[in-house]
Every structure is written in structure tokens, then in C-alpha cells.
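Session log. Operator J.P. requested a structure for one protein chain; no other inputs attached. Running the standard single-chain path with C-alpha cell output.
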Amino acid sequence: MIALISLVLLFVIIFYALIFGAPYAPLAQNRIDTMVRLLTLRKGQKLVDLGSGDGRIVIEFAKRGIESHGYEINPVLVALSLFKIRKAGLQKKAFIHFKDFWSVNLSEFDAITLYGITHIMGRLEKKIKKECKPDVKIVTNYFRFPDLKAIRQENRVTLYKI
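Structure written below.
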């Protein structure tokens, strides 16, 4: 009975993630490389990846000495990310949180990465403007914010600065 309840709960969580989150779309390495190049972060800075998927972005920045946090609501992707972080030995720099990023205060981060979807970009722009410190850098993949002025675009990655 406990196994059945656990299985049903897992399906409910995954269903929630599919309905309220963006669909999982893994990024090509060349896009991640573009994000790294555009953000030009230094050791001591903190990055957050909103909707971190399989953790590729978090891991890539952590390899460069950047404290990197990812927020993901799909439990399968959270488990995969945690496994990959442990395998890479990055537990002191890379952190994945099983949490909806809408409930996270973004004020502690120097940079934000995301692969959003059109219908969230306006609401997310308002959240970022309200919570983020001045000079925060943001890179988006493919989808753009409705009102923020882009600083640069390369390889379908857009850089913004608040």
C-alpha cells in the first residue's frame, strides 16, 4: 500500500511539473558556452538557474568556481541533477533545489539564467525588477522579456542587465 501511495504521489508531482513548469528541453553545449561567455562571472559571484532541468548550466558554472543554484519542480530532473553534481564532485559549488522558483527571493544572486517560455516572461520580468539588486545580469535562451532592453544577443541567447 505504501508503494502504491508513493507511486501515485510521484505521478502527481510529475504531472504538476508538466502542467505548471516549462517542458524539459536540454540545451546544446554551444548555447551553454555562449551563456558563460556573455555573463563573464568571477569567482565569489552567485548564479541561479530558474527551471534548472538536468543541471547542465549549474554544473558548467560550478566547474568555473561560481556558486550555482538551480530551482526545478520536476523530481526526476532534480534527482538526475543531484547525481550528476555528485559524480562531478561539485557538491560545494553546485546546488539543486526541489522548489518552484516563483517562491524564491532572487536578491542574493549576481546572475540569472533561464530557458523560459513565452507565457511566463512578462511575469518573470516583473519579479526580477522587483527583487534583484542593481547590475544583475540575466541570460535567456530563445525567449525574450517583453520590456527589458537586451544588451547583446548571440546564438539565440540574450543578455540583459538590470
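Operator note: The chain has a mean pLDDT of 90.
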